[in-house]
Design goal:
The protein is mainly beta. The protein contains one helix and nine strands; from the N terminus they run E-H-E-E-E-E-E-E-E-E. The strands form two sheets. Strands 1, 2, 5, 6 and 7 form a five-stranded mixed beta sheet that branches.
Length: about 130
């Protein structure tokens, strides 16, 4: 299994479905995927989101990452000018076989989400030793 085997779902379809429920547009966070022998690691940039406002779900081999941006200036007076419209984050990935979903772990620091998806034992590379019959 390699990083290429995590396929991003059609983001247009996801955004359209979510916009039907909520009129705000979503930002698709940029994600880097790094693979080593033990894990696939997803690194997503999600500035402006508090850790408590991030949800990560895996259902039917679909990984969904959502982050709600806290609205600035709310309760701090009357808004007289706005050039920045905060938008929530939303991204989905299709997980293929070889991921131990129950052992997934996430960390969030300074606007960067790091999600570790351990490989299942069957998907980890292994070396076969050659024996001689002497």
């Amino acid at each position: 299994m390699n990083g290429k085997e995590i396929a991003a779902r059609d983001m247009g379809e996801i955004n359209k479905a979510e916009e039907t429920r909520n009129q705000r547009n979503f930002i698709v966070p940029p994600v880097d995927i790094v693979e080593d022998e033990e894990d696939l690691v997803l690194v997503a940039d999600m500035p402006g989101v508090d850790k408590e406002r991030i949800t990560i779900d895996i259902e039917n081999d679909i990984l969904t990452i959502k982050g709600q941006v806290a609205l600035p200036l709310r309760g701090q007076g009357e808004l007289t000018h706005q050039e920045y419209e905060p938008r929530d984050y939303h991204r989905r990935f299709q997980l293929l076989e070889g991921i131990n979903q129950d052992a997934a772990k996430a960390e969030y620091t300074d606007g960067v989400l790091v999600l570790r998806l351990p490989k299942a034992e069957a998907a980890k590379p292994r070396q076969i030793r050659i024996e001689s019959r002497n």
